[in-house]
Amino acid sequence: MFVKYNKVITPKKLRKKVRLDKISKKIKESNDEAVKRIISGEDKRFLIVCGPCGADNFGAVIEYCQRLHQLSLKVKDKIFLMPRLYTAKARSNGEGYLGMLFQPDNEVIDINKGLVLSRKMLAKCIAITGLPIAEEFLFVEQLEYYSDLVSYFFLGARQSNSPFYRNVISGLDVAVGIKNDLAGNVLNLAGSVHACRTPKTFLFKRGQVTTTGNGFSHGVLRGYVDETTGFYNNISQQNIDTLNEYCLEYGTQSDFVMVDCSHANSKKCALNQIENALKTVTETTARGIMLESYLYGGTAADVYGVSKTDECLDWDNTEKLILQIYELLSEKEEKRAKSNTEIDKQKTDK
């Protein structure tokens, strides 16, 4: 039984109240295309999405994004950095912190205020850093209120098997990373990628809509949990090959695969993300990773720059890791160039 209804600001009014300036609009559009070129393989840079488990504090998030921007300038020839700014949180048991969109002031639920604050935060990030924004697609209303600010969506493990979410993603014009479900079923993940990439016709907003399919949707390996709540890692070339094989069986070729270094893959231990990230770069063909990272490590109820939900890597470890990945990518590039030179020499000698 629904017992109360409070009106909130309409999407049209919110977009008018918190606008992107002309320069920021062009930057956002450019970022959209840059991400798509990476997904398609046209741009060979490695994609790293990193940020707090939940974007829970306006000032701390902006400070984090400013630091990420400075780091991006050092690695931009080989790594494309994108802040992960989740304004709404999916909760396994339906309890706990719900994200800035719902709880802009600690435990008080004020969606109207949360919508305004969330949009201001995302818009400011673009305006002062020029970085693209990655957000989780948790509610359809998010698209109405600030899809014009987001360059990349994640579809979480709890939604990835949903026909409704698959249908909507097939009509989005930005790249979407689809996570394997909580049970880690890679066949289901391949089905989700195929569903999102192909045209759909369905009932949406009291109308019949038809989409073109989202050619930039792709799989994200995030580990899985069994019925005893044990965490299992699925970071391996075998898992990637299996996913690609299933996608091909569906008639979909999706060469771009991302690894979520946190969640079940890290057993909810932030420092385990470091090993996961390095393993991904050195032992697999994955071309992107996601990290949960904030200004300070661990988790706390209400401390500036510390996650309210899952624990995150602190900034120092995050920066060190990304610079290490940059060096590893440089080494791989040098080896590849050397190998190509030797092959060309052998052809010439023949």
CATH architect. name = Alpha-Beta Barrel
Uncertain regions: pLDDT < 50 for 5+ in a row?
none
Distance between the termini: 80 Å
Helix content: 40-55%
Sheet with the most strands, sense and barrel status: 8 strands, parallel
Q: What would you give as the CATH superfamily?
A: Aldolase class I
Instruction: Tell me the overall shape.
Output: globular
**The CATH C-level class name:** Alpha Beta
Query: What Rg, in angstroms, do the CA atoms define?
Result: 20 Å
Q: Please provide the ordered H/E string of secondary-structure elements.
A: HHEHEHEHEHEHEEEEEHEHHEH
How many helices? The count is 11
Derived structural class: alpha/beta
Arithmetic mean pLDDT: 94
Return the CATH topology: TIM Barrel
Offer a quick outline of the entry:
With 350 residues, the chain is α/β, with parallel strands linked by helices. It is built from eleven helices and twelve strands. It has helices at residues 11-17, 22-40, 58-75, 111-129, 140-146, 163-169, 186-197, 237-249, 263-266, 272-283, 315-349, and strands at 46-51, 79-83, 134-136, 152-155, 175-179, 201-204, 207-210, 217-221, 224-225, 231-232, 257-260, 288-292.
